[in-house]
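Running log. JK asked me to keep both predictions on one page so they can be read side by side. First protein, sequence followed by its tokens:
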Amino acid sequence: MKQLIQSFKTGETILENIPAPQVKRGQVLIQTTRTLVSLGTERMLVEFGKANLLDKARQQPDKVKQVIDKVKSDGLMPTVEAVFSKLEQPLPLGYCNVGKVLAVGEGVSEFKVGDRVASNGPHAEIVSVPKNLVAAIPDNISDEEAAFTVIGSIGLQGIRLLNPTLGETVVVIGLGLIGLITAELLKANGCKVIGVDLDEQKLTIAKSKGIIPINPFTTDVVKFVEEETNGIGADGVIITASAKTNDIISQAAQMSRKRGRIVLVGVIGLNLSRAEFYEKELTFQVSCSYGPGRYDEFYEQRGQDYPLPFVRWTEKRNFETVLQAISSGILDVKSLITERVSLEDYNKIYGNIGASKSIASILVYPEGGAVDKSATVTLTEGSFKGSKGVIGIIGAGNFTKMTMLPALKGTGAGYKYMASAGGVTGTALAKKYGFTHSTTNYKEILQDQDVDLVMITTRHDLHAGMVQESLEAKKHVFVEKPLALNIVQLAEVVDAYQAYAFPYGLTLSVGFNRRFSPHIQKMKELIGTSPAPINIVATMNAGFIPDNVWVHDLQIGGGRIIGEACHYLDLMVYLTGSPIKSICMNALGTNPEENTDNVSILVKFENGSNGVVNYFANGHKSYSKERVELYSQGRTLIMDNFRKTEGFGFKGFSKLKTGQDKGHAAQFKKLIESLKLGGEPLIPMYELVNITLASFAAINSLKTGNWVDVNMSEYLKKSSHGAVLA
């Protein structure tokens, strides 16, 4: 199928051929008939993409600060690589979509195949959208009219925050598409509306809708509003303009009455004058997109609606209200359409979008069978017959882009499939690294006989199930940590491993890369393969992640202990040469949560070694992220951030220095070599289970406040096959 994307690196707008998305649980699959181009937002994105690096930096000073902080913590070259990688990431354009339902996911009962719906889907021939961002279209509304649903809800949410009453005077500053819709809805609400813009064409349209038009070039807006309100001032001001100047917010304050309300829907300079707001006791509020529920993972992605008696107007109910307004005739959007362009001719809009005088541009899509609905697209021709080390990657997120693919270079792997949920990021990465296929259906990887190794880098809750499916498909598997999020998932993985790995010579690897770093390898060499009991103190200055990020969600990410601190449990198992026997975890604070990310973990090993894992999220970014201290027989090793290792008391060794190397490249090289040699596990399955169980035990210890045994023998007895894991 075809989809419009924007390149921030080149500034080019591209109609890309990507695989069609698959419908997921709680989502609606839609074949697009019309989309509306949001000229304000999309002009900003296109012009940002065309700007040079210096201008990009000037436009985003907050991002520049983040870059400077990253240079301090990670160094110059890793930061430069991260910045350019971010710029290479394509951005899907558009958010005003109309089409017909092709399929509904599990848990969706509000829609059926064939329904006409409006959604916030992008400019793409087929989209998959969560049900709370989809609204049914009344029969008397055309697809073109319905395309205004989402952008109309942005204006409607600004009005709801302003809370105007019958007879009030409201000024709308900026009569672009959102501004004109906002002004017309305010008129329908019984308000006297004054519209402010520099464009005479927009002022003419506003006047035709009963809105009082004002051009600030020819009229003093503040004085005009005062005269129009008999010296009282505007009851409310809604700013839908996009400008860098601070003059707009100042004018809004000056034209407001005492205790007036100002709502910002657009993007302007916000250097507020305290005096202007203080003297009148003005209220100022910023409107968030379509309404309550926006950017709420539970509402949007999981379909958990807010109860109507307590949250009357959600973003979906705002969508439905805009559609009702169009259906009843109180909102006329047909008059705003200035051009209709076929999807293939998109450059008529985007080629010179900065100079466009259009109010509303509609993209028209091909009908029916003209759309390619395949889940996989072939990017280049290639044959993998008879070769070993052919991979298919499931997941095209940041780890795949920034870590896995660069580390796989030089391994000799054959790149066949890149799978991603939406298809856009997966296709971009597939093209960059020479994959022959991009897909949105990971099961095609499992069914392809060419593929030897499936590499899984999805969100954590999908790991165990995909590992099980891949083993059942008789594939070698690499999965980024963690292996599983709970004991049930782990048992299913173990059962699949026992059923398929032994008979078919398959391997299962987990992304525990630290043990492959040259620094850890050197430490292991220095203490020997059969060391006496040792003490290890490992500290991870992990950094703060906001509570609403998915890694903290116990159902999706498992929390940062199960999801990341497991790296250091593996590292200690490797250095001690011994399984973990028992574990005790203590968290920061008087009321620690299960998914806390400030903990100290005490670890006992079967050979008598001791370990301490300090996993902290409250440290400073400029301090080293990772540090390992090892104490043994009057000797000490200190590893700092995988850049420098110092030895004290070791004959012939004092220091090892490298660029930062956490062992990813070495791990992947060994993995691909293993496949070509017939498949040897990089880490014994017994250790993988032991480490995973230990991370679960740490959480249980936090709940009870006691030591928890990591009893492998008892666990293995519960496995349905009961085989000894090699």
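And the second, directly underneath as requested:
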Amino acid sequence: MLTNIENRKMKKRPHVAIVSSALPRKCGIATFSADVSRGISHLLGREATSFIALNDNETYEYSPKVVFQIEQDQLEDYLEAATSINESSVDVVSLQHEYGLYGGDEGSYIVEFLSRLKKPVVTTLHTILEKPTPDQYKSLVEVIAFSKAVVVMNQLAINILTDVYDVPIGKVHLIPHGVTDMFYIDPLFFQHKLNLRNRFVMLTFGFISRNKGIEVVLEALPAVAAEHPEVLYIVLGITHPVVKKHEGEEYRESLENMVTELGLTQNVQFVNEFVDDDTMNLYLGAADLVILPYHSETQITSGVLSQAIGKGKAVIATPYLHARDALSDGKGRLVNFKDPAGMTEAIKELIENPDERLALAGQAFIAGQQAGWDKVSHQYVSLLEEVVEKSISGQVKQGRVFTLPDINMDYLKNLTDDAGMIQHTLYGIHDFTHFYSSDDAGRAMVAFTQYFNLFQDASALQMVDKYMAFVIHARREDGWFYNYMNYQKEFPPQETSQDTFGRCLWGLGAATRVVQNRSPGFLARSIVEESIPMVKQLTYTRAQAYAASGLSAYLVLHDDYEPARKGLKHISDSLLERYRQTADGTWNWFEDFLSYDNARLAQALLLGYQHLGDSAYLQAGLESLDFLIDVQYQEGCFDLIGNDGWYFKGGKKSLYCQQPVDAGALTETCILAMTLTGDEKYLEMAYAAFQWYLGRNREGVSLYNPLTGACADGLGPDGPSSNLGAESTLSFIIALVSLYRWELVGRFNGTGRMEILKKLD
């Protein structure tokens, strides 16, 4: 079977002319078209799109992508544009249709353009009226007639097209309104950025006009603010350019006067800015609740609503067409048009019931997950390619919710050759001067075995075999492991590493859980059992912690193997003794310093409690984890301890370079603490730690690239490291898989979790 990429190579790469308004014109269709263009260009190449820009008698400094301009009310421009496209290398036209965008009666000039066009057209319909006037009906039917395919953004639009306009169902394609691809991050992070601490943020955004119905929310607010003075209603956006041209800022000024008259100056904020992607992401990220009190019942497509759903926001809206469709089945709250009392009730309900608000947000986000621009762009490209291919062949004639990214193992596989896993890279390119590493082979066994346990992907087992072969080759006669092997497959002189022993045992223990019915599983089990006596020789805390993870993994399926239980008890007792010697009530830690992979120490004690039941392990494990969180969780995000000096008791905490392994260890340990205690704060901290990778950090930048599956090596004052090594990506994947495991299994099992995990593995 051909892959999508191989199939695309066999097809002609179309050149797409987008007919629309274009940035920097401040217009919602222009923003949408820019996103479509970026998505197509990402898939087909930078030169795949050009623009035929619709002007509104204003002058704009367009990008070079704009190759022709049409003045809205000049019919001659439409005809010249059609001729220009016919004589060009354009293969297909993507027309963005909105009645008010084009000149003539109900936008009829665009029909003149289409009637002269000799290239196939795919039209995206932004407005579809259930009760059109005769001119509106005629104009839309003609646009559809000249189009080889039409795109709508929800099922309700399909129903209207087929029932009201008698459009053949085969001509209509459902592609949702795209939303910015962005990982879910707790609103608290953005609220800190906007200096909105301790506020409950409600948001209405987009172009401001009377149709927005903002006055309804203002009338509803006094009763809300009286009981909840922390409420802040933000109205974000500039006045719609067409409205401003005809009546200036009259509507905005009337709203500002209402705020004063109603005594809401501490509860309402107007942000008079054009809502570009950065501005939207910031304010929408900070919103606890989005309110869309529109007056027009006929609005069938709302980019604002799509973005709110895509970002996982609880939404209150009036029952206009798009909202009725998108917020059905409990995905949001609908309030009658022009109903301040109903709006007051809905707002208070969601403020006072945070679980309900988070449930709404979760359902909304799930519904919006298929609308990321990456997915939407693929759908547009597939449709455009299909239309071009049919035209060429003559078949067509002119006439609180938590979310996770996909698990992408590609980068780890690319780092692996026949010998093992490459330890370091230069800008993502293999750096063979820094050897292969047993440390990474051990962690890779953990990553791929856990991945297989959830998704039963047989290719993961092939990778496990490779890493196990490396670890076996690196095992010395005395039972320790070489860490580094050079490109000539030789082990250069090197010191014995306790950490390497612990990580290899961790990986081998994990391997016994996934391949227990295959020969490599028996091999892994035998090496684990042979290595257990050496556990007592470990004196480094982190080496002990890694070994504890390996023994815990082994005990999941072999809980009655007494040497493994004794080995885990030895480690747990040793760590507990270290903790009791150092912890003083303010510095609750195992040593007088915090360095790398810190949470693994607390994790080891929690694993000891999980298998052995000693409550002293649980108490010390939770106290040390709480201390670690207190030290690092600052202003809504984890500010991890940097390796440029670490953090010594009584000293100053190093801020850079922050290490991905620390975020991963915190994620896993907090999930384990949640599993053992049921305390929701640990679940929140697990996601906060994981979101450090995705931009919830002191620099506000993501270290992870979902397209490649690679994670940067660290976070410095200038942002993420340019190098993308094995350790960082492995830590990300292991943390991500642990969260998937929680969402798919752990969240739904309150008791008997060990039995559930045994069945799963």
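Observation for JK regarding the second prediction: Confidence is low (pLDDT under 50) at residues 1-10, 395-399, 750-761.
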